[in-house]
């Protein structure tokens, strides 16, 4: 399979204007360049690897810096004079992949992402109810101390139930029984909206969960299957802490700076094996041994023994596939993956008006337009002071794309007083970086991306495509690399390669905990009603018998 080549002729071109390679990675998305980088490091010049860039020139890397951890030894990091082992720092799948690749390229990480517990403050957070009432919150949002006793109870129970369900679904070695398969199908075809309404009794509890789902997935609860949301909880080890950003996804997506730095380093590492190409119109096989990619004008064909797909689902719609590579059913599944959407805002002030009043700048609101926000982390590696104080966060998505500046300022005035009425600058941007499978398609998509088509096509980077969500993109690219490695040279897999994909079970489980998690306000009311009905029934029967 391997072809020897020298540095001056990286790719084999015939007189028919075709580029030949052992492996082609189609697409320069973040998952794609991760896959290419790992393959190049593993095989070097013993195999011809080509990356086809359909986008064009490399994007300009971000000029923004972040509040970095100091560069330290491989095994430890030092925070406030105390050494903390990397194993203690990395406590979930998302943070693990960000940590692994940033360490490989010597990219320091912002404290707000890698160690959010060290960014906590004694200043008060603010919670805004649906009716506009504001509550000061001294503890974390996920403790729910700002809610009534019953609302707090059912939200804590609901999160415990989600955690127990994650264990049942993802922490089993195999799901071979008919019962297990039916359970997966149930969670996949059941929307989060239905699940929320079936379990939660109070409107405030429901609105908080809908807000959390929208923040984590970038889409409303009624478009997300329970199984897809459980997968996000699994990747971050728990359903808890999402509201405070401890589970990485908010802060990592919100800040966004790590992606540009990582992508820039990765693209430089594979620059010599990357080719810019025109749009691909068809992908077909030849004698079930090779994959052929044809461009729109037919000027160049690309031929390989193994193809790795790293395109967005919407890009796949423009390409015609051989039925052996992608069936009509599979094409239908990818076409139904819709782009998630979130809206980010940044507002700056001449002075820090919230700290002066005893507030941290953290906001959680189920009224809107701001639904989650925090004070913008320091953006200097030298320790210099920012010129302006700023708040950064997410806005409620509305049908129109109108600018929310006036509504945001009005909300901040209500939260922080009249000084908030005069910002220095305001900016909001759309985030659309995650493709979400339609309810009922998640299992089919996992099966589709979990195997190869006749051993010459890999779809791993499509699972689940999230180019802007750094952790998900790195994980998808690494998973695709491991799959390709198992096909190309299984004996080349190292212990590190295998162990990376085998993430440990961090949640504990016992039958008692499962039973306890199922106790909530609605189940309690049902129990009382059923008990009362049975008691009345028994009483009536005994009365009838006596007569």
UniProtKB/TrEMBL annotation:
UniProt-listed SUPFAM superfamilies:
FAD-linked reductases, C-terminal domain
* GO CC annotation, single: mitochondrial outer membrane
How is this protein situated with respect to the membrane? Single-pass type IV membrane protein
The subcellular localization recorded is: Mitochondrion outer membrane
User: Where is the major localization of this protein?
Assistant: mitochondrion
Q: What is its EC number?
A: 1.4.3.4
A molecular function (GO) held by this record is: monoamine oxidase activity
**Which is an annotated Pfam family here?**
Amino_oxidase
All copies of domain Amine oxidase, residue ranges: 156-430
Per the similarity annotation, which family is this? Belongs to the flavin monoamine oxidase family.
The identity of this protein, by name, is monoamine oxidase
The scientific name of the source species is: Galleria mellonella (Greater wax moth)
Q: What is the lineage of its organism?
A: Eukaryota, Metazoa, Ecdysozoa, Arthropoda, Hexapoda
Q: Gene symbol? A: LOC113510573
């Amino acid at each position: 399979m391997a072809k020897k080549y020298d540095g001056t002729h990286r790719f084999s071109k015939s007189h028919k204007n075709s580029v030949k390679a052992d492996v082609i990675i189609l697409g320069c998305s973040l998952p794609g360049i991760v896959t290419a980088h790992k393959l190049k490091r593993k095989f070097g010049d013993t195999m011809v690897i080509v990356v086809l860039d359909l986008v064009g020139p490399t994007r300009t890397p971000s000029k923004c810096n972040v509040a970095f951890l100091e560069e330290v030894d491989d095994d430890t990091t030092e925070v406030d004079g105390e050494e903390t082992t990397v194993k203690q720092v990395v406590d979930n799948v998302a943070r693990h992949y960000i940590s692994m690749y940033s360490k490989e390229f010597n990219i320091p990480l912002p404290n707000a992402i890698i160690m959010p517990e060290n960014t906590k403050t004694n200043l008060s957070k603010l919670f805004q109810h649906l009716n506009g009432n504001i509550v000061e919150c001294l503890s974390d949002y996920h403790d729910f101390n700002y809610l009534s006793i019953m609302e707090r109870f059912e939200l804590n129970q609901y999160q415990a139930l989600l955690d127990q369900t994650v264990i049942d679904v993802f922490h089993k070695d195999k799901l071979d029984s008919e019962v297990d398969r039916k359970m997966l199908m149930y969670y996949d075809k059941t929307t989060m909206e239905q699940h929320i309404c079936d379990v939660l009794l109070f409107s405030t509890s429901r609105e908080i969960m809908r807000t959390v789902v929208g923040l984590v997935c970038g889409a409303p609860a009624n478009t997300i299957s329970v199984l897809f949301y459980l997968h996000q909880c699994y990747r971050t080890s728990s359903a808890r802490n999402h509201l405070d950003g401890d589970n990485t996804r908010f802060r990592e997506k919100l800040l966004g700076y790590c992606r540009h730095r990582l992508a820039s380093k990765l693209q430089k590492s594979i620059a010599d094996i990357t080719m810019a190409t025109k749009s691909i119109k068809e992908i077909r096989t030849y004698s079930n041994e090779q994959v052929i990619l044809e461009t729109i004008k037919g000027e160049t064909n690309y031929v390989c023994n193994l193809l790795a797909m790293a395109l967005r689902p919407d890009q796949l719609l423009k390409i015609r596939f051989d039925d052996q590579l992608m069936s009509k059913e599979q094409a239908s599944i990818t076409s139904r993956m819709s782009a998630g959407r979130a809206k980010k805002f940044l507002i700056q002030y001449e002075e820090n008006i919230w700290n002066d009043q005893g507030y941290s700048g953290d906001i959680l609101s189920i009224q809107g337009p701001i639904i989650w926000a925090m004070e913008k982390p320091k953006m200097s590696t030298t320790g210099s002071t920012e010129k302006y104080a700023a708040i950064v966060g997410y806005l409620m998505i509305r049908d129109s794309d109108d600018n929310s500046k006036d509504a945001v300022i009005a909300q901040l005035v209500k939260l922080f007083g009249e000084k908030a009425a005069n910002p220095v600058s305001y900016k909001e941007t759309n985030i659309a970086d995650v493709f979400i499978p339609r309810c009922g398609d998640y299992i089919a998509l996992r099966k589709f991306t979990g195997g190869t088509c006749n051993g010459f096509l890999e779809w791993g980077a499509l699972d689940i495509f999230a180019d802007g969500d750094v952790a998900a993109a790195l994980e998808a690219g690494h998973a695709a690399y491991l799959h390709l490695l198992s096909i190309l040279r299984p004996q080349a897999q190292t212990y590190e390669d295998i162990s990376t994909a085998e993430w440990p079970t961090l949640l504990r489980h016992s039958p008692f905990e499962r039973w306890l998690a199922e106790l909530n306000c609605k189940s309690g009311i049902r129990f009382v009603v059923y008990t009362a009905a049975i008691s009345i029934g028994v009483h009536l029967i005994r009365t009838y018998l006596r007569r």
